[in-house]
Write a structure and sequence with these properties.
The chain is of the alpha/beta class. The protein has helices spanning about 15-20, 55-65, 85-105, 120-135, 155-165, 185-205, 210, 230-240, 245, 270-280, 300-305, 310-325, and strands at about 5-10, 25-35, 35-40, 45-50, 70-75, 110-115, 140, 170, 220, 260-265, 285. Strand 6, helix 4 and strand 7 form a beta-alpha-beta unit. Helix 3 (about 85-105) packs parallel to helix 4 (about 120-135) and helix 4 (about 120-135) runs parallel beside helix 5 (about 155-165). The longest helix is centred in the middle third of the chain and has 20 residues, at about 185-205. The N and C termini lie close together (about 10 Å).
């Protein structure tokens, strides 16, 4: 079995969000043809999309071509609505979570993850519970809510609820800062995303979130954990040499927490994958692709399958076993389960 833990969808049929939820400036879909559309935010083009984002048959064909048995399917972060009043974000989450289940139609090759109104922890817990009862298997969250990082007390309370309910959480970077130096060459995606994920892991460690949360929490950071693995040595050095400024609320050095989280394999190069495995361990890295977006990996899992430094047992862990552990599944999934 091969499991891809990091894919996205944009379900068809979502309503005019300004009417359904109130407010204005919402994302909307410009239909350009039967096989092409554009996610718009106001008058601005955000991202072109095709049937891979909404048609399960197209997804299954691509999975078959890439040798992927099961996809974890998560929201596209532009719809998180964390910057909106909580009541509006609740409505958006309900719309997209319900449409996700309708789109995937119970196909056991797809594992649906929901979104929640993370700016309101109580509402986020309530929506998670509703979604788990309806058929979702996990949750995707953004790496911050405005200026609140993952060590914020409310977000920690939500993650504790995930641990209590046995819900896996995928952390995805979003809402990267822009500006003249970052708005060209897709620099927000090429430099901002890795930095955002790195900062989130720092917050979980130095902000004391991992110390406050039970070890049973299963949490995965997208895009290989950003730049964290490469700069762990710098962080460790700073924690020991400038503990007066760096240690924050952490009870242990950063390297102590490496068994508390997973990362995916969206790093594209064998040398980068080796760094992840060497740094985090062979049990903490699992296949992801960012399918179906153009900055993702295709064929999915190729960086693992072509990594000559991995043994057959290690490849099996990265392709399958680690994902089952993250998802809390004992005996397999989908068509190979």
């Amino acid at each position: 079995m091969a499991v891809d833990v990091h894919t996205h969808l944009v379900p068809k049929g979502w309503p005019d969000l300004s009417v359904a939820c109130g407010g204005d400036g919402w994302p909307w879909l410009r239909i350009d043809s039967e096989r092409a559309a554009m996610i718009m935010v106001g008058a601005e083009e955000f991202r072109p999309i095709g049937p891979q984002t909404w048609d399960p048959a197209v997804r299954r064909a691509d999975m078959d071509a890439d040798g992927i048995d099961v996809q974890v399917v998560s929201p596209t972060p532009v719809f998180f609505a964390y910057d909106r009043p909580a009541g509006q974000a609740v409505k958006v989450a309900r719309i997209f979570n319900d449409l996700t289940l309708e789109t995937l139609a119970g196909d056991d090759r797809f594992v649906p993850f929901c979104q929640v109104p993370l700016q309101d922890p109580d509402a986020a817990c309530a929506e998670l519970d509703r979604c788990l009862a309806a058929g979702h298997a996990g949750v995707e969250i953004g790496n911050h809510v405005g200026d609140k990082d993952l060590d914020d007390a409310g977000i920690v309370a939500f993650l504790n609820h995930c641990a209590e309910t046995g819900t896996p959480a995928l952390v995805h970077p979003w809402d990267m800062p822009g500006g003249p130096r970052l708005d060209r060459w897709m620099a927000r995606w090429l430099t901002g995303m890795p930095a955002e994920t790195h900062l989130s892991l720092l917050a979980m460690i130095l902000g004391g979130a991992f110390d406050a949360l039970p070890a049973s929490l299963r949490i995965c950071f997208a895009h290989g954990g950003g730049s964290f693995a490469f700069w762990l040595g710098r962080l460790e050095n700073a924690w020991h040499r400038r503990g007066d400024l760096v240690r924050g609320c952490s009870q242990h050095p950063p390297s102590h927490y490496l068994d508390r989280f997973f990362v995916d394999t969206v790093v594209f190069e064998s040398a980068s994958l080796r760094l992840l495995v060497d740094t985090l361990g062979e049990d903490r890295v699992l296949v992801g692709s960012d399918y179906p977006y153009p900055l993702g990996e295709r064929p999915v899992g190729e960086v693992v399958r072509k990594a000559g430094f991995l043994t057959a047992e290690q490849q099996h862990k990265l392709l399958s076993t680690n994902a089952l552990h993250f998802l809390g599944v004992q005996h397999g999934l989908g068509r190979a389960g």
